[in-house]
Amino acid sequence: MTRVVAQGTFDLIHPGHVHYLEDAAAMGDELHVILARRENVTHKDPPVLPNRQRRDVVAALDPVDHARIGHPEDIFAPIEAIDPDVIALGFDQHHDAAAIEAELADRGLDCAVERASPREARYDDEVLSSGDIADRVLAQRGDSDP
Prior knowledge:
Blueprint: E1 3-8, H1 15-25, E2 30-35, H2 51-59, E3 66-69, H3 77-82, E4 86-89, H4 97-106, E5 112-115, H5 130-141
Parallel strand pairs: 1-2, 1-4, 2-3, 4-5
């Protein structure tokens, strides 16, 4: 059985997320998804939704076999526990595949690192970014406190 790991923030799920997970699932037989903890998201605004809610939504998606929240300190700890054959990176994720491969080798994990294919918008106003969804909500409904 080929185990695949996909990872990300998965805040405000959109068609790009679904495409990434479908692509990742096609790389093997079993898809494990690791969701970044809110406190570990430093490369962009933190997620709007809580960790458990994001995990539960991702777990409910058809391509996903297992979903878990990432480790609070060591992003590779869940990868070691899963021992995947493939890590599927999103086509636009900021991760350096070579650095990931080096860390996997240092930890004794024999695992390929692949990039998922991009998902192009299928119509003019389709939104494929959680940040863009949040911006659109603020623009249409106002920037007021709930």
